[in-house]
Description:
Layout: E1 2-6, H1 13-26, E2 31-35, H2 41-49, H3 58-84, E3 88-92, H4 95-101, H5 105-111, E4 120-125, H6 128-134, H7 144-160, E5 164-168, H8 173-184
Parallel strand pairs: 1-3, 1-4, 2-3, 4-5
Helix pairs in contact: 1-8, 2-3, 4-7, 6-7
This protein binds thymidine-5'-diphosphate (TYD).
Amino acid sequence: MYIVLEGIDGAGKSTQIKILKEWLEDNGFNVETIVEPTDLEVGKLIRELLTRSDAESDSMQKTFGLLFAADRLMLMDRIGRLENENTVVISDRSFYSSLAYQNPQDWIKELNKYAKIPDLVLLLDLDVKKSVERCDGTDEFENEEFLTGVKQNYLDLAKSNDNFKIIDANNGPNKVSSDIKKAVAPLFDICKDCIL
Ligand code: TYD
């Protein structure tokens, strides 16, 4: 099972991934987490480039499209191996981030055609103003105008992909985690009504 958390910056993905991992482990499952961009060679380069003042420019966005796709491709064998070992993979972001943040969509889709399709995408949907408040502003993408577009792209993706589940991330962390557990429970035959 390959489960992905998506959402604009500051949506709470990393906190919720920790909670979800522990909960699945308590229910007897082996779980590994991954993060995009990775801490591999290409991922490190991406993190460095994200702080550039021209990171939002058209040519840099296309460069990011290529780099994110390459960084992701390096992860695919690992995900496949983990799945073969019956380990649940929870990922902080996936190729859907590239579809939401980069463009043009057709080209991004082509670049990511070897990326695995997640079984479930939990879209943590947060108000853009809250996102900007929560972000430290180190990445050039962390501004209101850009993130408004990204949020809309995510909502469009949720409409056209059956594997998406929208979670209201404006709620407190406990409510968000219980909504996430309720969305995940049916995949693992865990009793949904037992979740508080
Ligand atoms: P992330 O590490 O999730 O953000 P944060 O620093 O808030 O923890 O991701 C770094 C940035 O990269 C974030 O602004 C989203 C962006 N991104 C893309 O633009 N395309 C992608 O394909 C991915 C995976 C991330």
